[in-house]
């Protein structure tokens, strides 16, 4: 029975982390367009929107993960999962 | 007492984990967050001209959806402008397509430019991940807000250096109704947080 509870707690923590990661990945966005600025702050000075000249090519990629990112995410996920496990054990004692 | 300590440690672990996870996820999906990367407002930039369509084609309105049947792409189209660095901005979502709102309406006279992500920071496929597989003659459809559909046929693809400054043909106003699709191509350049090339797909209106 104790083993079942142990597995259930880890299962819940794992499921929570999976959902959190899926949620984060579904809503990841490119941050280029999140803040409007006054056009007077533009540092190009060469764009002519009437003729279309001087416009730079868009940045349409994010490059995927680096190894460091993956390591940080795995450690973070493990910390959260362990925290949830500890919390659930705390409540199960009360 | 022991229970409280355990709970405190649990909260610390969860909070710390969430903070570092959120920070990493956030920064892993931003391709360009340096100064001047945000989109500038339209206060001094003229909004898209409503150029008339070429003869024999009905006039199109504001684009709403893009469809490329051969690649299985169906995406919502959102307006984008110019970043403070002077580049065409991109959609917030990697699953949407951005229409350069200071250019031509898709289907009307001039080059209408649509850009979409190739991936995001989690290595998930962006809306234009498969764009490199498009072929000459493939059909592309753009549906406007009124439900009217303009159909284009791909005439060619090319790859441009990401620092290319000669983009006048891509953002050209006037002339035949051309649709230009852009996404990232080539290799990742960590120092600039972008790919080193852009895939350019051109198509002309046929219906």
Verbal overview:
- The complex is a heterodimer of chains A (94) and B (207).
- In chain A, 55% of the residues lie in helices and 0% in strands.
- By secondary structure, chain A is mainly alpha-helical.
- Chain A is rod-shaped.
- Helix content of chain B is 13%, strand content 33%.
- Chain B is built from 1 helix and 8 strands, in the order αββββββββ.
- Chain B has an 8-stranded mixed barrel.
- In chain B, β5 and β6 form a beta hairpin.
- Chain B is elongated, with a radius of gyration of 20 Å.
Secondary structure tally: strands of chain A: 0
Secondary structure tally, helices of chain A: 2
Report the radius of gyration of chain B as a whole number of Å. Answer: 20 Å
Q: Describe the sheet with the most strands of chain A.
A: none
- Number of helix segments of chain B? 1
- Biggest interface: A-B, 59 and 87 residues
Task: Return Rg of chain A in Å.
Answer: 23 Å
N-to-C order of helices and strands of chain A: HH
Summarize this, please?
Chain A has 94 residues and is mostly helical. Chain A has helices at residues 2-26, 67-93. Chain A is 55% helix and 0% strand.
What structural keywords apply?
heterodimer; A: 94 residues; mainly alpha; 55% helix; rod-shaped; B: 207 residues; mainly beta
Topology summary:
The complex is a heterodimer of chains A (94) and B (207).
Chain A: H1 2-26, H2 67-93
Chain B: H1 2-28, E1 63-68, E2 73-80, E3 97-100, E4 110-116, E5 139-144, E6 149-161, E7 177-189, E8 194-205
Parallel strand pairs in B: 2-3, 4-7
Antiparallel strand pairs in B: 1-2, 1-5, 3-4, 5-6, 6-8, 7-8
